[in-house]
Specification:
The protein is of the alpha+beta class and 104 residues long. It has 2 helices and 5 strands.
Length: 104
């Protein structure tokens, strides 16, 4: 994967951007494969997240999966409710990314 090597030393922003592009591609391909190869009553749910360690920023996409929780070290929690449609029902999907600050 030449692109991974290209951003390896470019800092978190570049790695995150590449990761999101790869995740968008993954969602698109998964959707296409499931759509083409299954009956219309079949689908998949999908959740993908990246946590930037230095900034504690969580970026995620949820494709119809049950809303996950972020549990903090102090015991508080937050449900990640933003999300989009399941994969495999429609010929194409547009994934909506969300961001959260996740302090300790």
């Amino acid at each position: 994967m030449p692109a991974a090597a290209d951003v390896q030393f470019a800092g978190c922003g570049a790695r995150t951007l590449l990761g999101l592009r790869c995740a968008n591609l993954l969602c698109s391909r998964l959707n296409s494969i499931v759509y083409r190869n299954t009956d219309s009553d079949r689908f998949i749910t999908f959740f993908y997240a990246q946590l930037e360690g230095a900034t504690r920023r969580l970026t995620y996409v949820n494709a119809g999966h049950n809303a996950p929780f972020v549990v903090r070290s102090d015991g508080s929690h937050e449900r990640l409710r933003e999300g989009g449609t399941v994969l495999g029902v429609f010929a194409s999907v547009i994934m909506r990314w969300a961001r959260r600050s996740c302090p300790g």
